[in-house]
Amino acid sequence: MMRGLNRRFVGLALAFAFYGLAQTGTLSDPKLLHKTFEAVWNTINNKYYDPTFGGVDWVAVRKKYEPQIASARSDGEFNDLLSRMLKEIKISHLSILDLKNLDKLLARAEVSRGLALRDLDNQVVVTRIIGESSAAVAGLRTGFVVKAIDGVAVMNARDAEKTVASDTANHRLTVVDEANAAREIEVAHKLPPKDKLESTPLLNGARYAMVETKILDGGIGYIHFTNFIQPLTKRFRSIFDSMKDTAGIIIDLRGNSGGDTEVGLAFAGLFVEKETPISTTQTRKGDGNRYTVRPQKKPYLGKVVILVDEASGSESEELTAGLQVARRVFVVGRTTRGEDMDATLQELPMNSIALLYPAGLPRTPTGVMIEGRGVIPDLDVQLTRAELLKGKDSQLDAAIQHIRGSFR
Fold first, then answer.
1. Whole-angstrom Cα distance, residue 358 to residue 288?
2. I want to staple 323 with a disulfide (CB 3.0 to 4.6 A). Which of 107, 139, 329, 377 is the partner?
3. Taking the mean position of all CA atoms in its chain, how far away is CA 341?
4. Is 192 inside a domain boundary?
């Protein structure tokens, strides 16, 4: 999750944080490189939440990487050096961000192409197609296996989504279809219509979030959105008002990459009847902030199920975990990513990049750490390619059954 300086510029778990650093051929003044290196190392040394750095000898890390500055032939190589140094500490939300390409780092395939991919049985499988999106128009269907993008074999779903999300060019996907026949499908870049899209300015671009709502059979409300950004707050209120008489509400956070903490707390305030602790943050100085959901006027008090999966991260994890502990929600799906830190953005002397670092470690009110563990659902349900090819979503079906009383 993001809090503090410029959180709205970043506003998510930054699953893509190491992706897309500019490989410019220019090389800045050596004094600027050394000042930037010094700023990165000192910030971690003085402000990183854990003074033991997870057992890493941070002084030895400096001695290892500082001499390598002289070998950098471009700013891109210098940025990579900083990233390698930070990777010595094994934790999420610790990275160098290329500010010129921040909008590309935060782009989502689900928003710009209308598809979601997951790793199922060692294959990269299409698990969601947004209606009327470019992926839907091109003929992609759930259950299709993606073998290659633009002739390059895909290695995993996460990297495949990054590839198709990070630009506006058409991409050629080699897929295995419902008949297990290989064919190629070209998918264009296309944003959702305005009634499904929110955006917020982001340096030289924009940060987008897609939101879907509908009433399912049996009068069950369904809400799905890709990340927590400030412009969604007003829309959330109207969504819950429209679902006040439903038999229950399913909040689909599968693939939700997180975002602005205050937006998450305001969202949860629409369906709690009393103040509900979500997390406590451990900082360098000890226990830091305590985050609590405060109920809004006329909150929804019916059944609520949250859907999560292995691509749910950061704020979506922390919020779900806190509400799960409070027994306000029932959680269905797969164990989440386990990337939940209280992160802060630090400006650097080289102003084309910034440092994202964990200033705090969140824990649930019962002391459970989500980082490295994830949120474990109350009901574990795995998607299968066979069901997806039939148009079935077993995780959503399980959520519906719980609201109807079949699962408890």
1. 13
2. 329
3. 12
4. no
For 22, other C-beta atoms within 10 Å of its C-beta total: 15
User: Residue 279 has which token pair?
Assistant: 């997390």
Give the integer Cα–Cα distance in Å for 261 and 269. Answer: 12
End-to-end CA distance of the chain: 30
DSSP 302-348: SEEEEEE-TT--THHHHHHHHHHHTTS-EEEES-------EEEEEE-
Confidence of residue 19 (pLDDT cuts 50, 70, 90): very low
- pTM for the structure as a whole: 0.93
Helix (H) or strand (E) run with residue 8 in it: helix 7-10
Average pLDDT over residues 66-73: 97
Provide the CATH number for the domain around residue 312: 3.90.226.10
Task: Name the pairing type of β-strands 353-363 and 342-347.
Answer: antiparallel
Which residue, of 187, 213, 245, is where some domain finishes? Answer: 187
Bridge partners, residue 281, by sequence: 362
178, 318: one domain: no
> Is the Cβ–Cβ distance between 15 and 226 less than 8 Å?
no
Full domain range(s) for residue 176: 114-187
Single residue among 139, 154, 187 that ends a domain in this structure: 187
